[in-house]
Specification:
Number of domains: 2
Family: Belongs to the eukaryotic ribosomal protein eS12 family.
Distance between the termini: 31 Å
GO molecular function: structural constituent of ribosome
Number of strands: 2
Protein name: 40S ribosomal protein S12
Subunit structure: Part of the small subunit (SSU) processome, composed of more than 70 proteins and the RNA chaperone small nucleolar RNA (snoRNA) U3. Subunit of the 40S ribosomal complex.
Keywords: Ribonucleoprotein, Ribosomal protein
């Protein structure tokens, strides 16, 4: 069963919520796509969320985007 999140209008699935967040970030020109732009945003501490695909190219990409919890 997929995880569900409570939204203002009712219940929303996690993937649907993620799609909405990414769409809004794209509309407001606040979406860094690709490894280079994402790495720049992470280095400048401008990123609020980083989504990494489960089928990414290798462990070096995972290491690049992993961050310690504060």
């Amino acid at each position: 069963m997929a995880e569900e999140v409570f939204a203002v209008g009712g219940v929303m699935k996690v993937n649907t919520a993620l799609q909405e967040v990414l769409k809004m970030a794209f509309i407001h020109d606040a979406l860094a796509r690709g490894i280079r732009k994402s790495a720049k945003a992470l280095d400048k501490c401008q990123a609020h969320l980083c989504v990494l695909a489960s089928n990414c190219g290798g462990p070096m990409y995972v290491k690049l985007v992993e961050a310690p919890l504060y």
